[in-house]
Amino acid sequence: MRRRLFGSVRARATLGATLVVAVALLAAGASVLLALRSNLTDQASSEAESSARKVAVSIATGTAPAALELPDGDDTPVQVVDGDGRLLAASEDLERISGTGSSAVRPVTPPVDDDDGGDDDGGDDGGSDRHGGKGKGKGKGGDDDSYAYGEIADDAEGGKGSATVDGETRDHRFAALEVKNTRQGDLTVYAGASLSAEQSAVGTALTVMLTGFPVLLGVVGAVTWLVTRRALRPVEGIRSEMSAITASQDLARRVPEPATHDEVARLARTTNETLAALETSVERQRRFVADASHELRSPIASLRTQLEVGAAHPELLDVEGAVADTVRLQELAAGLLLLARLDAGERPGEARVDLATLSGEELSQRPAGRVAVRTHLRPVEVAGSRSQLARVVGNLLDNAQRHARSRVDIAVRAEGPWAVVEVGDDGGGVPEAERERIFERFVRLDDARARDDGGAGLGLAIARDVAVRHGGALTVRSSPAGGALFELRLPVAPAA
To answer: Which residue of 8, 167, 218, 361 has the fewest C-beta atoms within 10 A of its own C-beta?
Structure first.
């Protein structure tokens, strides 16, 4: 059942489309979640740095850590730590913290510097610090609430941690901002921003995706299934019709062609063209078998009759007639065998053949007949089968001598890339409407299908088939002498 289901193009297309959409949705969802988390984390980092910078500005302008007004630790926990890691100030209600420079939540009291206490003989004004800066404290002579100007670092360092306020622990994004050259030395302000909004937004987005993705995948699968079924419906029609044609062996039937211009419509048209070609080929084979049977029946019957008469009455045996019928039968069998080999796709070969020499040999094998033969032979070589090309030239000469009144002309020459053999006569010629039909097998222009001096209607068909398989062509037109002029064109052989 599983193999049958996934053996369907529709099922595979639906599964493939669903998988592709699922991968795309997963990639897009992951990108959205990462981008959302990154943006919210950056926003929290900015908020933490802003809070840290506000506290740092208060310290730098002279506010003591103990006197700082720190934000509520529930949303923005703050620590002020000196260079020795001592906690000088912290947000109220802070119970536990991690990810900062100190895990302490209760500030210690900083030591009092007595060097600036009201000694008038010290030589320095109590309002000036040891760095030469002007004090901005509330008291005189360097009170504990009085600090020197400080230098705030340009950039804050980021980190991640957690803070517990009123028993509730939350993740925070911390910013560490350093304030240098204060009276207490170098101080570091740690300020945090809650990541609750980031976690809530990411969780909500993840819930929406986990809920929506299956629904969307279901919709994609259903739509793909319906669209594919609609698209493949003509294919099923083609398949069922082809199955019916195979069962009935009726090659006259055709598959339905959709009224579209897509691949399925082109497939249907190509299938019908193939069926038409197959029907033509089968019909041609049927005619060929019928014609071959008819042509073979006559000489075989004549030869049998003569042999039976000769067996009963030896003095009446027509030896010359029996030999003629045997020769005709042999030639017909040879022609049928050559046509069968050509139909089977026999390659012509690559031998180099001089058409002038070949034409001279064919002429020399024929006894002098009632018509004269004039030759104009110039050497030109082609590549192919010598025996098949000899059969072509011989068939053209036989046809010309059979129909000529007084003369036959044969010429061999080269015309650019072509080798040309022309065989003409001064006979009755071929009507223009019949000039293609005479190259069909077993076709002769005499309706009575008389022997025509031994012709079976295969010579010109064989000649054209051989010419085409050698990359050339065989045509007929009127000759200057008034008869038929057959022109054979073959590609000239490349230089050796």
So the answer is: 167
Closest CA to 266 of 246, 244, 238: 238
Q: Rounded distance, CA 109 to CA 63, Å?
A: 15
- CA 367 vs. chain centroid, Å, equals 65
In angstroms, the Cα distances linking 474 to 157, 266, 377, 419, 477 are 92, 34, 18, 12, 10
CA dist 359 and 373 (Å) reads 12
**The token pair that represents 188 in the structure block:** 């570091």
Average pLDDT, the chain: 81
Beta bridge partners of 172: 161, 194
Match 């900083």 to its residue by tokens.
Answer: 110
Q: Identify which of 237, 285, 278 has the alpha carbon closest to the alpha carbon of residue 260.
A: 237
Burial class from Cβ neighbours inside 10 Å (0-12, 13-18, 19+) for residue 8 reads middle
Q: For the sheet containing 407-415, what is the strand order?
A: 372-377, 407-415, 418-425, 484-491, 473-478
- What gap in Å lies between CA 304 and CA 18, rounded to an integer? 77
Mean pLDDT of 396-406: 90
The whole-angstrom separation of Cα 140 and Cα 143 is 6
Angle, in degrees to the nearest 10, between helices 386-403 and 355-364? 50
102-145: pLDDT as tens digits: 888 888 765 544 444 444 443 333 333 433 333 333 333 344 44
> Domains in the chain and their CATH numbers?
56-196 (no CATH), 251-346 (1.10.287.130), 348-491 (3.30.565.10)
Token readout for 107 is 């500030």
Find the distance separating the first CA and the last CA of the chain, reported in whole Å. 64
Rg (CA), the chain: 54
Residue 161 CA to residue 126 CA, distance in Å, equals 42
